[in-house]
């Protein structure tokens, strides 16, 4: 059905590994000039390159409004450390952090750690869901006003407002509380690629933003409807779920070569792929969104330095000119960009404490 809901746009700023922070800062600032909701930075134990979460922690003080969403692999990592790192990114960005939850499925990646062999995808996504669950509990383990910082009394914290989470999962147990105060957003935004079967269940249960791949608006709408149905079955309000189509974008021409390392074609095997001009891309985005198929798009430029500029100054500018996408950020946090409320603390009861 036609929609009047706000359009959400995000972009990937990864590509061949770069080790100078200025490259990522420039791309994030470019996306910010277009008022995009957030940028992502892909990461994997299977590829060389700097740690995405650390890179975006460096980008944070060099940007003002853009959301920052690194890929964080939950396999072979400790949930307590993961939740602390994501909470820290939310603090240093003043409430603009998210995390793109991913898993590691290969034996080669497992050998890097030597703790356990590779496991099936459904098992790993079940574990990823537990990591998302315990992370949210750890973020809530400090009440918002737990810090006192009273020089007069010598008290830094109200211990009655710290809560052990006492989480017992299939793969780990976490007592808590966290060592980082509750993040500015309460919960940093959780992003999951829900295209695959095992990942979709985790996305429906835990994600704020779900990335999907579809080659037609009808298919995208069907996936969105399925995700909303599953979210409702878990007791969630489906209107709090944002479903974005993940699209690899090539806005090049015969005179412009891709960056080294990307000449062979789309980096996402089996993913949705667009090649054409910025104007036609704007038409595609507008058509799919107006028809109610999706809440927005996550665009992966096949050549970041070239294509992101054309996305922002061409596609996004046209959507803004047609009043289909905002021209400024109405708030300061990533949750505000996405139209999502700050979650209540599960351990703080009205008029008292849990």
- What is the count of helical runs? 10
Strand order of the largest sheet: 1-2-3-4-9-10-11-13
Radius of gyration: 20 Å
Structural class: alpha/beta
Give helix % range: 25-40%
Distance between the termini: 43 Å
Major pleated sheet: 8 strands, parallel, barrel
Helix and strand element order: EHEHEHEHHEEEEEHEHEEHEHHEE
- Stretches where pLDDT is under 50 for at least 5 consecutive residues are 254-270, 350-354
| C-alpha geometry | globular
List how many beta strands DSSP finds: 15
Mean pLDDT: 91
Q: How much of the residues is beta strand, in percent?
A: 15-25%
Which key features would you list for this structure?
15 strands; two-stranded antiparallel sheet; disordered C terminus; 354 residues; 10 helices
Description:
Helices cover 35% and strands 18% of the residues. Strands 1-2-3-4-9-10-11-13 form an eight-stranded parallel barrel, surrounded by eight helices. Strands 5-6 form a two-stranded antiparallel sheet. The N and C termini lie far apart (43 Å). It is built from ten helices and 15 strands. A hairpin with a 4-residue loop joins strand 5 (147-150) and strand 6 (155-157). Helix 1 (21-33) crosses helix 2 (52-59), helix 1 packs parallel to helix 9 (304-321) and helix 2 packs parallel to helix 3 (79-92). With 354 residues, the chain is of the alpha/beta class.
